[in-house]
Amino acid sequence: MIYTGKSLTVSLSDDGFAELVFDAEGSVNKFDRQTVKELDEATQAMASHSEIKGALVRSAKSAFIVGADITEFMSLFSKPDDEVLEWVGNTAQVFDRFEDLPFPTIAAINGFALGGGCEMALACDLRVADTSASIGLPEVKLGLMPGFGGTVRLPRIIGSDNALEWMTTGKDRSGAKALDEGAVDAVVEPDNLLAAARRMLKDAAANKLDWQKRRKAKKAPLTLNKNEAMMSFSTAQAMVSAQAGKHYPAPHMMVETVKNAAAQDRAGALKLENEGFVKLAKTDAAKAQIGIFMADQLVKSKGKKMAKAANKQVKLNAVLGAGIMGGGIAYQSAVKGLPVIMKDINRDALNLGLTEAAKILGKGIERGKIDASKLATTLNAITPTLEYSTIKDVDMVIEAVVENPKVKSSVLKETEEAVSDDTIICSNTSTISINHLAESLNKPERFCGMHFFNPVHRMPLVEIIRGNDTSEDTINTVVATTLKMGKTPIVVNDCPGFLVNRVLFPYFAGFSKLILDGADFVAVDKVMEKDFGWPMGPAYLLDVVGLDTADHAADVMSQGIPERMHKIDNDPVTLLHDAKRLGQKNGKGFYNFGTDKRGKPTKNAADEAYELMAPHVKEQQSFEKQDIIARLMIPMANEAIRCLEEGIVASAAEADMALLYGLGFPPFRGGIFRWIETMGLAKFVELADQYAELGPIYQVTDGVRQMAADGKSYFA
User: Fold this and answer.
1) Catalytic residue positions, numbered
2) What are phi and psi of 22, to 5 degrees?
3) Rounded to two decimals, what is the model's pTM?
């Protein structure tokens, strides 16, 4: 044995070939500081060993190397710029020293080779992947760029155009795709991976493969003439501007770095990469996107633990109510391999539910995402029925009838009488109290809320709502089933609107107050979309939600939390609803919806909406962008804080993920609590106090005021 560490070892075979094997103590290999240190020590040990003819790098696990340990490196990013630069520079030089070993090297890639794992493979002279391989540089998803030589080596291996597409999108490549683009030299079946890598390494050592020419190219400037460079980088900049926009600095920095490094050798190019990495590590976007990654890990970990604790496996599902929502839930269950019975009281509704599922599948076929076999399998897994007797043997029922407490209570009562004693019963309600609905059941311990978001097949979140009597076994089983259905479960406690809608409606209230004070809803939408980063501004979102749905939910919230969410006099939402302007569903709301001559959807500010509101609003005036943002976001932030303080949601991280997955909260802002923290709690309190006279939704809690005074954090 040439070298033995905690994360990797180096052995030497009788024929003179070394094997560097990554085998960390945990479940996966990743680059933490210990592993980087060991790689450097192992490299030095190999460099000083005169008998080595070549080195093979492989993993002893089911994945090569999943990337850097971002949880460990987070603390480094808060240090002064020069310290971060020194760290990333020293780490990158470890990969350089490995690349400079005086013999050929090859990476045998199985499973994930991402981020630092991909950069390890790029530092080798040759790369062979098996058919399970997934290779990529996803740092952009964390608001960062590769920092261990990825921006230097990949463009010199596959060309700057392909390399920038890899890095700016962060998408993984299969082994076959990587081979097609020149990132790997061969793709083989998993059983043949090591044998193929060893043969290739021996060929290189025997000079049958010119590994030295490959290495020289990676250390030299890019081979682009002036015109090629101009075309390549201007195209990349245009693509990044169109796709990423102004809020995500990482892809812009990657293009700029590769462009400026094109004429540099490895040392010069790496210096530019290191400097760009440090700049990005200090941005609010990186802090937010890393925060999302950490929060996502927390949510996934909690979900897996709950699912593992479930004492019941759901093998047959049922959905009650076959409208758009019920059809979407039935589709989601069926497409993930969980058979589902879809029940309604009339055949037309069942046909609507099946049509909804078929429509989603049809679009999947058009986009090449599924084939005819998957379509047939999915539709065959949905059994429509008009009879309660058909659901007697199901393991779980999801009620998705009209959002009316009396109707829901009646359906739930009938359902309990029709199913077995251990069948779990859920309600897909968006606002109605789970504790109230539980009163209609004899066994409330097997009942909880299961709030899907529309459209079901696209929205990742499912709120699991725990009632006062809901058992942990019920929650665990519903979480496990949610995961099985391909969704992200976040467990919350019961209250009006639960978490997502409870924090959304103060945002809508802030919007309504702003319109009544003379703001133009089109201008507000533009600011909230272009400047704050929401996928839809509030007026557009209300049209998509449905003004009838929004008005009804506002009534429910008003009854549940009257001290802050009482109905606003002459609320524009109510004015439009009373005028039968329901939004997208009937083509008219704040906006008029239609299609152009080419059949593409259109959206135009409705003169009729302005006319309806005119008698009730102040004279139209312009508001500063920051004023608009503050008047909408402070109420949302305050209500999220109350939800956390009241124990409705367990952590700030889970609240952030719920808003990200349920509402499309701008990822570069990281979530509502990350937005507050980026501003600083003291500054948030100061900002909110400037608007306190606008009403209770603008007034901060004593809890956040004390946290600000004590210098505390929601993510401590």
Assistant:
1) 451
2) -85, 125
3) 0.92
